[in-house]
Design goal:
Mean pLDDT: 85
Radius of gyration: 20 Å
Structural class: mainly alpha
Distance between the termini: 44 Å
Number of helices: 4
Shape: elongated
Low-confidence stretches: none
Helix content: 55-70%
């Protein structure tokens, strides 16, 4: 099994050049948290994005029910490929 090589802060900064600077304190805090707690901010961001999309669809399609709007949100966010047989 190959041993993992950890990147140095300089190597990481070179990769993400052009983005906001890395908040190393925040990164250390997140690294110390258990996985399930690190997952929560991502789930919150997903929920926020879906709520925004839901609101947009409500304005664009006022005649649709909430269930139909939810299906539109899922269809928009889920790449589904259906093959005709």
């Amino acid at each position: 099994m190959e041993k993992k090589k950890f990147l140095t802060p300089e190597e990481i900064s070179a990769i993400v050049d052009g983005f906001d600077p890395i908040d190393w304190v925040q990164m250390e805090l997140l690294a110390k948290m258990p996985f399930e707690k690190r997952l929560i901010p991502g789930l919150n961001a997903q929920e926020f994005a879906m709520a925004g999309l839901r609101g947009t669809f409500k304005k664009k399609f006022p005649e649709l029910t909430m269930s139909e709007i939810n299906m539109k949100v899922l269809a928009y966010l889920t790449p589904v490929r259906m093959e005709i047989q």
